[in-house]
Design a protein that fits this description.
This protein is an alpha+beta fold. It has 11 helices and 25 strands. It has an 8-stranded antiparallel sheet.
Length: 529
């Protein structure tokens, strides 16, 4: 037993020592490494020469509504086919080679002919990983069409679906590669830009792709944050259905009850819209709720009392579900407004009770049994209800609740599932309400411990931003970095800024787009020359 404990602590000491040594190495390299004059001058050339062309390309890419269409694959979707055609035309115009692999296209720069067979020399190639598909939009939320690059509604910003996630990255890399080509820089490694067309909804095709194709030995994903992302939380969901009871006689009476509860748009977006209808409401209830609503800031409640039905419409702020702190969740705040009592247990009433009992407006699962935990590097797990889906039944509307999880390392999948199921079992017993269609999906967190390009990325980032002593970070989102050899993420979002991807106010600033072009140009030169 003593030997076992000593072995355990020895492993901990080694891991701690390795972490400290790695951080010291990153700091030392970042403080001393210099960006070559060639990389600097070419980056400035790219910015001075191709800023407008890059924006024009982004405008073209944004114009395609590359949201997944249910039941239609990418290879058969007319919009995705047209998007790939436009991308091919752009690549060939700029002097690159192009290969269409169905769900993935590869755009290459370098003397070596494009060859994804097993005979390709992976250590002679650098991969840049992006995606061209986007999340759904609520067009009514936008000043102009979300598929029109809007540069006038908010000066200095380029608004549109995909501007930050992830079409600006494609445009930036194309012109970084073009600047390198213009300057006739001799490359020792071939540059390959990978554009995946189903990142937002289906990773199966890309998982199959990486199993059957030779990949570059070094890869950079442009789908997250700076300075360098070397760890990502695991994506998870908890879903359950609140069925409408067969016997509603004890609920539908002269007392107030919650008639309906709707909200949310898609699973990886913090919802900014929700609506609750309370039947048998009166002015006293209206006044009580209006007074309580004044306690909450940064969220708007609208009330309409008509024919004893009180409709409460909630407007929060949408955000990527990996950064729930950037949003204001309309679903949880709607329930919180009604938390002064337990409501009759029809589907909508039980749903409100469940959210208030187990979630509240907390972001980290602190009210959900023992589920909450954190990691020193990866941070806290986040727990966010994102969608309420209505299903018609004989008794009325059943309501499906989806809760999005982003989990760090530190607990096993089995432990989390046990803790989740314990909460659900206990709540059902106490409330005498049976949930149906219970389902948990617990994805794995990911940490990259072996990426030799990290010091170069940090040096370039510090040089062009002036931010010194930058170190790798962890994020709540999940990118394709975890699928490619030695991959880490490098932008396009700056640290300590609100990430707008997946929101109804997605944009990239002109300044950031230009900065990205400079950094991507410099990185490609430093790694490939």
């Amino acid at each position: 037993m003593l030997k076992k404990h000593l072995k355990y602590y020895a492993k901990k000491i080694i891991l701690f020592s390795t972490l400290v040594t790695s951080l010291a190495l990153f700091n030392t390299v970042n403080a001393q490494a210099e960006v070559s004059k060639l990389a600097q001058s070419t980056a400035e050339y790219a910015a001075n020469t191709y800023q407008q062309e890059m924006i024009n390309t982004l405008k073209t890419l944004v114009s395609y509504n590359t949201v997944a269409k249910k039941g239609v694959s990418v290879v058969n979707n007319p919009t995705h086919i047209a998007f790939k055609k436009a991308l091919k035309a752009q690549a060939l115009k700029l002097g690159f080679d192009y290969k269409d692999d169905g769900y993935i296209v590869v755009i290459g720069l370098g003397a070596k002919a494009l060859n994804n067979t097993s005979s390709s020399k992976s250590n002679q190639r650098i991969g840049i990983i992006t995606h061209g598909d986007v999340q759904p939009v609520n067009a009514s939320k936008w000043a102009k069409s979300p598929f029109e690059l809007d540069s006038t509604s908010e000066p200095g910003k380029l608004l549109g679906r995909g501007t930050e996630d992830d079409k600006s990255a494609i445009a930036s890399v194309l012109y970084a590669m073009k600047a390198i080509k213009d300057k006739h820089i001799k490359l020792s490694k071939r540059i390959e830009l990978y554009v995946y067309l189903a990142e937002e909804y289906d990773w199966t095709p890309i998982r199959n792709y990486v199993k059957t194709h030779s990949l570059p030995a070094m890869n950079i994903t442009l789908d997250a944050e700076y300075p360098v992302v070397s760890a990502e939380k695991g994506y998870g969901t908890i879903s359950m259905t609140f069925p409408q009871p067969n016997d509603l006689s004890n609920i539908i009476s002269d007392k107030a009850y919650i008639k309906s509860f709707t909200g949310g748009f898609f699973g990886s977006q913090i919802p900014e819209d929700a609506k609750i209808v309370i039947a048998n409401a009166d002015f006293n209830l209206l006044e009580k709720l209006m007074n309580k609503a004044t306690q909450y800031k940064n969220i708007k409640f609208d009330f309409l009392l008509k024919d004893n039905n009180l409709t409460i419409t909630t407007l929060g702020t949408s955000a990527h579900s990996s950064t729930p702190e950037d949003g204001v969740n309309a679903i949880t705040y709607s329930a919180k407004l009604l938390s002064f009592k337990h409501w009759p247990n029809n589907a909508a009433g039980a749903l409100v009770n469940f959210i208030n009992d187990n979630l509240g407006i907390d972001l980290y699962g602190n009210n959900f049994g023992k589920i909450a935990y954190s990691d020193d590097f990866m941070g806290k797990m986040t727990v966010s209800p994102t969608v309420l889906k209505q299903h018609t039944s004989k008794q009325g509307n059943d309501i499906e609740l989806t809760i999005n999880l982003r989990r760090p390392r530190g607990k096993t999948k089995a432990q989390l599932e046990h803790e989740i199921n314990s909460v659900l079992t206990k709540w059902q017993a106490i409330n005498k309400f049976s949930l149906t269609n219970l389902h948990n999906y617990i994805g794995e967190p990911w940490v990259q411990n072996d990426a030799p390009q990290i010091p170069t990325l940090l040096a370039v980032f510090s040089h062009f931003t002036g931010i010194t002593h930058a170190n790798p970070i962890a994020i709540g989102g999940g990118t394709n970095s975890r699928l490619f050899p030695h991959a880490v993420s490098f932008g396009p979002s700056m640290p300590n800024t609100v990430y707008t991807g997946h929101s109804e106010h997605e944009f990239i600033t002109n300044k950031q787009l230009l900065l990205n072009l400079k950094m991507y140009t410099a990185v490609l030169i430093e790694l490939a020359k």
